Amino acid sequence: MPLLKNKPFALAKAPEDLKPEEKVWMVRFTDEVFRSYDREYLERINLYRQRVWKCKATGKMHLSFEEALVSEHQASEKSHKFPTEFMEYVLRLVQFSMLNLNDLVTMIYERLKDYFLEGEELHGRKEDGVCPCKILEIITSNGSCCYKLGWLDKSRKVISTSTEDPKTLIRKKLPFSRDLLKLFIKESTSQNNPWVVHHKLAMEHGISTEPPEEFREKEFKTNKADSKRTAEMENANAPMSKKKKRNQNADQVQESSQVIQEESPKVVRIEYPIDDELVKPSEDDPIFSERPTPSLHFIIPMENVGDLLMVWDFCSSFAKVLHLSPFSLEDFENAIVYEGISDLILELHSAILKLLISDQGEYYALTQQKKRKEMIASTNWTEYLCDFVELEKGTSSTDHIKMIKRGQYYKLSICVKLEILRGLVNWALSTDAVKGTLEVYISETKALVAAKREEDLEEVRKRREDKQLKEMTSDNDNSVQQNGVSECTSLHSFDSECSCEQTKDMQRDVNMETPALNETHHLGISGSKRDILASRRAMMKQALEAKIAMEKEKEASRLVELKKLREERHAREKEAKERKMKEQRQEKFDLEMEKRFIRTDALGKDRHHNCYWFFQREGRLFIESEDHKEWSFYASNEELDGLMGSLNPKGVRELNLQMQLQKHYSKICAAFQKRLKQMARSKEMSQNVVSDTPVLRRSVRVSVLPEDKKLPPFLGYVNKWK
């Protein structure tokens, strides 16, 4: 059983009063049964999923409960491989040993270096060399030991016996490793200090389960300590002082409160996302839209849709390697169903068969053996196809080959046609041309990803440097602004102080000179009046200069604000330009990655394990059922929005699917619109053809419309990449 905090973990017992019709929750790997989902079952599941468990057998840590169980099971299976002839000897050395595990393993290894056991197979020296043998019996007499050996042949059977000295025996190495010995010791013991072998295993090998005398003395001492502890507890029941009684009551109250807290039901907080099947509706859930019903409209049988998509995706992805012009999925589906030979089917088979011949493999050898012409044309392509079917089936007498040879390929069932094409694709994937293309794509993809990573790192570094530079400039501007403000305030205070002092001096002079003016007024002396006028002019000049300085300061602050606004506008424009360039680089990167297409991966799964597929060159979102037997699709933006609105992000699978749909939303919508436009255009063209057809007088023998007026698109296919 896995360990939690280095201690065994007890499983929950099943309720005793369960009724047969009662619904319960059961843990798959422990068979524990719970009645409550949120309070018991989910709490236990969350505990089992945490990486806090330890494998008891191997000591591996940071595992989930199920991983620890698997590790213990594997270790148990491995420990059963321990040689049976060594079990009794090893268990006797392990029983009641006080050594730690590493020292115990080392001690056993040292003991077994020069000690041989009955039933052990090893090698012994004989007159004609070293031969394999088996120890049949250990013979001891007068303190000496010799071995009765059985000499073995190649089939490990005893062919002769002899008694030999231990010096003639050769053991190259022990038949078990140190790790296997450790596992065997852990699996065979119930405790490790001292080591105690399981009772059943000890009785099976005749090993004593009675502890030695030293352990008995130790047990007696522990019993004595326990009796002393009980005596102290009895003394504690004697009358005590008020202070001790008060402390004891406080401790009891604290313990009782802790017990009440432990017994009170805990509110389990579920950490989403969890497995989709465990998600239950709750009050805080948003209103999910109803999932739209996907379309099941396929021309071919449902069980063949997967093969159809696989063949078409291969041809679209490796069109340049095959020298085959791309074609739509609808055209390919119509060509498969068509009861005749279309140019699309002919070119498709010819392109893959040419690829197999150019690879010069097994199929090329078969064509050379049958002396086929090197050029595949519309007249002989069925011969090459018969050779391929014969090579794959291993026989040339199948009904399919006979029908193809008679020129009745179109009479084959859809299942057989797609089976042949699937075989051709599987062979084409193993050719050097496809493998080389894949290797080139992979290397180029790695280079693109590395370059993109370097660009991202350079952008992050540049952004960090700009941020540091901006912080430095802002600090400098603040310090300069603070210094300028302090200087301006000091200048203003100094000017105001000077003006106040000057006015005070002028008033004092005026007050002192007033009597003199009164005395000299009648004499006509006007010198002091001119001084007063001069001082007034000086004061007015200073006030004017202060006003001009204030206006200059306001203008400077306004210019600073304008500069700041201009810099912010430039920064926004620069950021928008960088964002646009980043988007353009991302679009270019995505375009280059699409050119180096390797394979199509599913977008994700919903809670019912339905798989969602989107192909780059097809305007539909395909849905594959869990059993891979049913296919359906969405083909409009409304259906896509309804699907995304019905996904519950609390589930792991639907959360991942929702993220992938959001990531490729614009691409999928563009593909939907493109397909709808093509369908509308083709419908309009067909209507125009019908309406523009003139009513001509024709005889009964020529009552058919011209061929080019009624050909469907798949019959007008032309391979432009030959």
Automatic annotation (TrEMBL):
Q: Does the keyword Oxidoreductase apply?
A: no
WAC domain ranges (all copies): 22-128
Taking every annotated instance into account, which residue ranges of this chain make up the domain DDT? 302-362
Query: Do the record's keywords include Coiled coil?
Result: yes
Provide a GO CC annotation, any one.
Answer: chromatin
Tell me which stretches of the chain form a coiled coil.
562-594
Give the location in the cell: Nucleus
| Composition bias type Low complexity, residue spans | 252-262
Residue ranges annotated as compositionally biased, kind Basic and acidic residues, are 213-232, 463-473
Q: Which Pfam families match?
A: DDT, WAC_Acf1_DNA_bd, WHIM1, WSD
Q: Where is this region: Disordered?
A: 207-262, 463-482
The record's listing under PANTHER family reads: BROMODOMAIN ADJACENT TO ZINC FINGER DOMAIN, 2A, DDT DOMAIN-CONTAINING PROTEIN DDB_G0282237
Question: In its UniProt entry, what is this protein called?
Answer: DDT domain-containing protein-like protein
